[in-house]
Write a structure and sequence with these properties.
Number of strands: 18
Structural class: alpha/beta
Bound molecules: guanosine-5'-diphosphate
Mean pLDDT: 82
Radius of gyration: 24 Å
Strand content: 15-25%
Shape: globular
Largest sheet: 7 strands, mixed
Number of helices: 15
Amino acid sequence: MTPVIALVGRPNVGKSTLFNRLTRSRDALVADHAGLTRDRQYGHARLAERDCTLVDTGGMGEGEDDGVARPMGEQARAAVDEADLVLWLVDGRAGLTTGDEQLAHDLRQLDKPVHVVVNKTDGLDEDVALAEFFTLGFTRLHPVSATHGRGTRQLAEALAADFPALPAESDAENDAEEAGIRMAVLGRPNVGKSTLVNRLLGEDRVVVHDEAGTTRDAIRVRYERRGETYTLIDTAGVRRRGRVHEKVEKFSVIQALRAVEQAQVVILVVDAREGITDQDLHLLGMILDEGRALVVAVNKWDGLSADQKAWNHKELDRRLDFVPWVHVQPISALHGTGVGDLYPPIHRAWVSAFPDAGTNQLNRILRQLVDAHQPPLVGRHRIKLRYAHPGGTNPPVIVVHGNQAEAVPGPYRRYLENGFRDALQLEGTPLRVELRGGDNPYAHKPNPLSARQLRRRRRLMRHVKR
Ligand code: GDP
């Protein structure tokens, strides 16, 4: 598990700028899916060699307008409660405001590290800018300029030093064959998640292992069905809520992230009566970003008229047309119809997420793809793709090496992805094709220069020599 940092602060203090700056390096690695609006609520960052997840609470129901001035919306509050570390951004130019004092009061109650980041300090005397914020009683203060990037490296180091030692999931827990396919059920509140989980764990299943996991609030339930074992990961307490509604579920982006992170295959539940909403797409984006395999369950299919069903099919095709490889299964969690039909696509997704294609096969496919359709020219040179090998599973990664491979434009990259996907018959999992320059597949430079950077470098070297 990676540590989670919640980023809080009033509007306009520079949260998105800092967020983008801290997550930029990692975001480049996340595949872009045409048709998906990027959710900027969270991002991955690598701070001082440690991976972490940054959650921007700014986008979360702030300013819920009930006439009461409150420093944080409910969702932001939940995110702060669940995070390992809080990053509180204040405006060094505006100085301390009443809102800040209120927030400080709330944050002091937390039993976790709070780092106060004083932004917009460029051109200011840092000591003066920090001074008034010291009165809030926090000891970890950092002057930065998010737009200029000043102070962000020191900030990253200070944060990383405060990362808790999170229990790395033991290999036994993760890879144990007897644990079967690890699944998580994800979806907006009220789409029918707990109904589905209860259905999955229904009477005819043998629950073989049911206890709170070692990883904080994650509960793992292992069960058997027709001789196969499955493990359901429940970080949102979906199961505990059971059939009775104690209280309305608060959607938590952190819980969703944790569930996705721990699962191999995610069942994304949507509500047939509402179609695919933007929040559904955000969840889908989260699953794709984490590279997890998935199946979409369209719940509450019962009681729909033939017209509604037809409309639904069309609407689902339209909104999910950028992930044509995802299996969409109509179900009624309430009545149990279609729930059993989730298992075959779950199995296909799992098998696809852990493909056993070797280097020979991948190279054969690469040659066929390149023969059928040459890579484009870059300047006067044609890109040459020479060699492919497997680079990872869940998500499957295929590494392709070649001359100027990193200059392959988007459409050709998608052509390669689709080609590999078809040839390997991958269903229900994202696939990453990583293009690396250089002919030698074993010369893995961690950070190869782009073609343009190389040209620039050569140009600069000429100046150096003169
Ligand atoms: P969760 O918040 O996603 O866990 O949703 P719940 O499982 O608590 O379900 C929310 C509401 O939808 C409850 O009133 C359920 O009875 C109802 N519901 C769940 N699945 C179905 C279904 O397949 N059909 C119908 N008609 N209602 C359902």
